[in-house]
TrEMBL record:
Residues 159-336 form the AprE-like long alpha-helical hairpin domain. Residues 110-145 form the Soluble ligand binding domain. Residues 33-103 form the Polysaccharide export protein N-terminal domain. InterPro entries: HH_AprE-like (IPR058781), Poly_export (IPR049712), Poly_export_N (IPR003715), Soluble_ligand-bd (IPR019554). This is Polysaccharide biosynthesis/export family protein. It comes from the Bacteria. Residues 1-21 form the signal peptide. It comes from Aminobacter anthyllidis. Keywords: Signal. GO terms for molecular function: polysaccharide transmembrane transporter activity.
């Protein structure tokens, strides 16, 4: 069906189809886990209809308008549901199997206001926390209140805490990789501690990067051991060849000694000349020299095999010792960081009672009146950063 016929068919069936769809669709809150209600721009592709495919911006009510197809509210839909809805509608209207794909290009931003350097919108990504949003807004500004007679440098304290927390997060991720390597476990599990410190998505991303390091290090060790094994195999084959050669030379020496003795006896009886006896003795000496060289080669190969076997032990031992040392150092560091973080949180909790207060406004209401630095935000949230005496109206815009 060409584009003109498609437009005509859609125009005829549009009102009936989408009236039914809108009436039957359940109404869902914007604070659900449905990601499309949080999106700002979508990329919609309709297979076979490039003129309808492209980037679409969601309206204030969570609707998207597709040329000819019309307006579709996506507030209560996820990507898969919208894909099915569009595919079914194209199929119903055209009589041909429709196929649609939906991707989120960008999410609605989060707005940060109050005691921050740069109030305004900051980009949202899954897992965005209060602390990260404040950092994107330029950090906290120094309040005018005093703490214990001294002006509180909140921004500096916040930066120190972030640095300590980031160091702890990296240390926990690294030690997870080191312990997996020591146990020869090919896959690193995400530690619960890391998820608690960094959030699920960040923890998974960190472990994924550590997994690449683990794969590289284990691959390097396996390559070393494989190279060592190949060298031992080649040396063992050479040793077997030399052993067979020695047996052959032993037989030749025994035979040549008999021949030399017979030549000497025949010379005494005047049957052969002295020159013949000397030739027999020379051949015997030549074979004995070959046997001596073979014995030397055997000793050299045996020494090489011993060295290779010891080398494998050394490779494993050095790697294991290095891992044990690194793990021990990191365990001490993690413990020290944990003590400092606990102290910082304790002090911060006492100070935050009358210093810094985070409030999350969602859908016009104060959704979280006393949010924590690790509280997660959603698109369109308004994060209000103030001191203990500050507050926001129960409904945004209320006078």
């Amino acid at each position: 069906m060409n584009s003109r016929l498609l437009y005509a068919s859609l125009a005829l069936g549009l009102s009936t189809v989408f009236a039914s769809a809108q009436n039957s669709a359940p109404v869902q809150s914007r604070v659900t886990t449905q990601v499309l209600g949080r999106a700002d721009r979508l990329l919609i592709r309709l297979l076979g209809y490039p003129e309808l495919s492209g980037e679409y911006r969601l309206g204030p009510e969570g609707d998207v308008t597709i040329a000819v197809i019309g307006r579709v509210n996506v507030s209560g839909l996820d990507a898969a549901s919208l894909e099915k809805l569009l595919s079914d509608r194209i199929t119903e209207i055209t009589g041909k199997t429709g196929e649609a794909t939906v991707e989120v290009i960008a999410y609605k931003p989060v707005f940060v206001t109050g005691l921050v350097e740069n109030s305004g919108a900051v980009p949202w990504q899954p897992g965005l926390t209060v602390l990260q949003a404040v950092a994107l807004a330029g950090g906290l500004v120094q309040p005018s209140s005093k703490l214990n007679g001294e002006t509180a440098s909140v921004e500096r304290r916040d930066a120190d805490y972030r640095k300590l927390l980031d160091d702890q997060i990296r240390s926990v991720a690294t030690i997870a990789r080191l312990k997996s390597e020591r146990a020869r476990t090919p896959t690193i599990s995400v530690p619960d501690t890391l998820t608690t410190l960094a959030g699920k998505k960040t923890a998974e991303d960190l472990i994924q990067r550590e997994q690449l390091v683990l794969n590289s290090r284990m691959g390097s060790l396996d390559a070393q051991l494989a190279s060592n094994a190949r060298a031992r195999t080649a040396a063992s084959e050479e040793l077997n060849r030399l052993a067979e050669q020695r047996v052959l030379l032993d037989g030749q020496i025994e035979q040549q000694r008999k021949t030399a003795a017979e030549m000497t006896d025949l010379q005494k009886r005047g049957v052969v000349r002295a020159e013949t006896v000397r030739e027999a003795a020379f051949r015997l000496s030549d074979i004995e020299e070959k046997r001596t060289n073979t014995l030397v080669a055997i000793a050299r190969v045996q020494s090489l095999i011993f060295s290779l076997e010891s080398g494998e032990t050394v490779i494993k031992s050095e790697r294991s010792s290095g891992l044990d040392l690194d793990i021990s150092r990191l365990e001490q560091k993690i413990f020290q960081n944990s003590v400092e973080l606990a102290k910082w949180r304790s002090d911060s909790a006492k100070q935050s009672e009358f210093m810094i207060r985070y409030q999350i406004v969602r859908n016009g209401s104060v959704f979280v009146p006393d949010a924590k630095y690790y509280s997660e935000l959603l698109p369109k949230d308004v994060l209000v950063v103030g001191d203990d005496g500050s507050s926001v109206p129960s409904v945004v815009g209320e006078k």
